[in-house]
Amino acid sequence: GAGVSQSPSNKVTEKGKDVELRCDPISGHTALYWYRQRLGQGLEFLIYFQGNSAPDKSGLPSDRFSAERTGESVSTLTIQRTQQEDSAVYLCASSLVGSGGIQETQYFGPGTRLLVL
Amino acid sequence: DQQVKQNSPSLSVQEGRISILNCDYTNSMFDYFLWYKKYPAEGPTFLISISSIKDKNEDGRFTVFLNKSAKHLSLHIVPSQPGDSAVYFCAASARNNAGNMLTFGGGTRLMVKP
């Protein structure tokens, strides 16, 4: 498929455990974003990657959250010592970067539904 | 502090009629606005966008209007179809800033009745 893919689609974990979420962006998209959607709320920005630049981590809610991206491909979002308030849908998006460094429309994956018991 | 607000959590419309979804923003740095549609258990799907240099953009049954002075945008769907039933998110970004992360509203659930 040509879209953004994410895995796993669902994850249930116990409080205190670490989880790792994966995102495969659209091929050729150099910009990659992670968002979070808690139940009944809008999407919250978490982190942004663009090429080899240092990621923008300004949206990460705590130091338990981290993310990596290998070149312009796969990204993993890691949540350490999960808490119940981490329960949410974690969405990944990717986009092209146009002339002048302007990011184009973001396209989203289906999300990973995380439930922390 | 919510920079993008969708004040109507839900909207019910009869099939064939017009659906109007509204969105307000507070950050004057926003210069690019988008609407996404989201079905249950799926990621948001891009619907239509508008740059701040325009006041209207149309794509088939979907039209987005931007009123910069009022910091307000709206999405018109006409005619509405039952398949349009979904949650619609308004999003905004400041494309002149590095990052271009989207700031989302809380969403409006649209129900189109046959």
List descriptors.
heterodimer; A: about 120 residues; mainly beta; 6-stranded mixed beta sheet; 4-stranded antiparallel beta sheet; 10 strands; B: about 110 residues; 5-stranded antiparallel beta sheet; about 55% strand; globular
What would your notes on this structure say?
- The complex is a heterodimer of chains A (117) and B (114).
- With 117 residues, chain A is mainly β.
- Chain A is built from no helices and 10 strands.
- In chain A, the strands form 2 sheets. In chain A, strands 2, 4, 5, 8, 9 and 10 form a 6-stranded mixed sheet that branches. A 4-stranded antiparallel sheet of chain A has the order 1-3-7-6, with no helix packed on it.
- The relative contact order of chain A is 0.33.
- Chain B is mainly beta.
- In chain B, strands 2, 4, 5, 9, 10 and 11 form a 6-stranded mixed sheet that branches.
- Chain B is globular and about 45 Å long.
- Chain B starts with a strand and ends with a strand.
- The chains are: A mainly beta (117), B mainly beta (114).
- The interface between A and B is medium-sized, with 29 and 25 residues.
Structural class of chain A: mainly beta
Sheet of most strands of chain A: 6 strands, mixed
Biggest interface: A-B, 29 and 25 residues
Query: Tally of extended strands of chain A?
Result: 10
Helix content of chain B: under 10%
Order of helices and strands of chain B: EEEEEEEEEEE
Please provide the ordered H/E string of secondary-structure elements of chain A. EEEEEEEEEE
β-strand number of chain B: 11
Poorly predicted sequence stretches spanning 5 or more consecutive residues of chain B = none
**Average pLDDT taken over every residue of chain B:** 93
Instruction: Report the major sheet of chain B.
Output: 6 strands, mixed
Q: Which term fits the overall shape of chain B? A: globular
What's the gist of this structure?
Chain A has 117 residues and is mostly beta strands.
